[in-house]
Write a structure and sequence with these properties.
13 strands; four-stranded parallel β-sheet; globular
């Protein structure tokens, strides 16, 4: 049997993981008072954002321990199963490295590793593609090869509503955050070569939505042969303009709608929203 493993930065919550038949290893979030929660396990995203708004100091995020991976890999090996592990970008987290260390500790050779070179809703799309290929009876080697090709055509574009969270996390100078906030600047971010990069900026939320819509085509257009996702942090209202545009302007089928979880939401902040998709150049035998 093929087991598919991922981390909670994919924002696949337990109920969805059960439906997909995948295992999710949680990352950790540590509050300023030292309290630690497991991403996607101990608090719902909604509960977490309510607590985040009250924090004077931004919580920190950390990777799972190698021992968590070791236990999973050892159990899978004992059952005679193969594991395909799909993890958030190794440029953004040590989770991939922790998984490799776990496999070394377990002393197993039944594991294939895929660095998604992405995060969040885009990482989840690779997991969903892996599930689709597994359920179609593909071999582990075929699945991994397809994922390596698919990630070249995987895109994420998101709007950051409140710059103070990037500032608190040290990812944006304080002066820039203050000036941007005063001017109502909304940056759009993407992931390039595994790292966070600017995809554009706009003044005010209406401008941010328009800029995001333009990025969909600039990034190669949405390939509707595969799942695609629209995601929000605190309110479904954040993605409603996106859903309307996809439906009424592009005449596309409705995307999966999900909520961005604790780890990614810590850095993006409440009010962030985005879209992830495979472009029209991707061709995978399903």
């Amino acid at each position: 049997m093929i087991r598919i493993l991922t981390d909670s930065a994919s924002d696949i919550l337990p109920a969805e993981a059960e439906l997909l038949g995948v295992t999710v290893i949680p990352l950790n979030v540590t509050y300023e008072d030292g309290a630690v929660i497991r991403d996607g396990v101990d608090l719902t995203p909604g509960e977490y954002y309510a607590s985040l708004a009250k924090c004077r100091k931004l919580p920190t995020t950390s990777q799972p321990s190698p021992e968590l991976f070791e236990a999973f890999f050892r159990e899978a090996a004992d059952a005679g199963d193969t594991v395909i592990g799909i993890f958030l970008s190794s440029q953004l987290s040590g989770t991939n490295q922790a998984a490799h260390l776990g496999a070394d500790l377990a002393d197993v050779d039944n594991v294939y590793f895929v660095d998604s070179e992405n995060v969040c809703l885009a990482e989840a799309l690779l997991v969903r593609l892996a599930v689709r290929l597994r359920d179609a009876g593909k071999t582990p080697e075929t699945i991994v090869s397809a994922l390596e090709e698919a990630k070249k055509h995987l895109h994420l574009v998101a709007v950051i509503d409140d710059l103070k969270y990037l500032r608190k996390g040290g990812r944006l100078p304080a002066a820039v955050a203050v000036a941007g906030g005063m001017l109502g600047i909304k940056p759009l971010i993407t992931i390039k070569e595994g790292k966070v990069a600017m995809a554009g900026k706009a003044r005010g939320l209406p401008g941010a939505y328009v800029t995001l819509f333009k990025q969909l085509e600039a990034m190669g257009g949405v390939n509707t042969e595969f799942d695609y996702v629209a995601a929000y942090t605190t309110s479904h209202r954040e993605v409603e303009p996106i859903l309307n545009y996809l439906d009424h302007n592009l005449h596309l089928p409705k995307p999966i709608v999900s909520q961005i979880g604790c780890v990614i939401g810590t850095h993006a902040g409440p009010g962030a929203f985005g879209v992830a998709f495979f472009d029209r150049e991707l061709h995978v035998a399903l």
